[in-house]
Amino acid sequence: xxxxxxxxxxxxxxxxxxxxxxxxxxxxxxxxxxxxxxxxxxxxxxxxxxxxxxxxxxxxxxxxxxxxxxxxxxxxxxxxxxxxxxxxxxxxxxxxxxxxxxxxxxxxxxxxxxxxxxxxxxxxxxxxxxxxxxxxxxxxxxxxxxxxxxxxxxxxxxxxxxx
Length: 163
Hints:
By secondary structure, the protein is mostly beta strands. Helices cover 0% and strands 44% of the residues. The chain is built from no helices and twelve strands. The strands form four sheets. Strands 2-1-3-4 form a four-stranded antiparallel β-sheet, with no helix packed on it. A four-stranded antiparallel β-sheet has the order 9-8-11-12, with no helix packed on it. Strands 5-6 form a two-stranded antiparallel sheet. Strand 1 (2-7) and strand 2 form a beta hairpin. The radius of gyration is 16 Å and the shape is globular.
């Protein structure tokens, strides 16, 4: 999908994203509202055009719940609020899966987040800035929802990946 947010004369477009994948961080909008237009990347057909709240400073955007998106609740703008790590890195889990009432995040056998209810995000968990495998799990039985092997960035950055 392609998504364009417009706020007055300011506009930003992300291209080629998949359902449930977070956008990159942008810092071009002021606090207030903007319009997001979500289009099919291949056909260019508009899937959703709706007003969303915007935050000043860095934010990411994700399309959630259902595909194709049909209403404003299918789009989530998430403000960047993180404590800057002094070493290593940090990760955070957002549970944006409507069919997962509660989720967790693990790296190997280590639990990084647990009990994250649908629509909420975890606190930032410190991790080493070396390659590791992260697994999002359903708290109902511990079934794996998604797995990604990646290297978190070195401090003062934090991991900005979705899967």
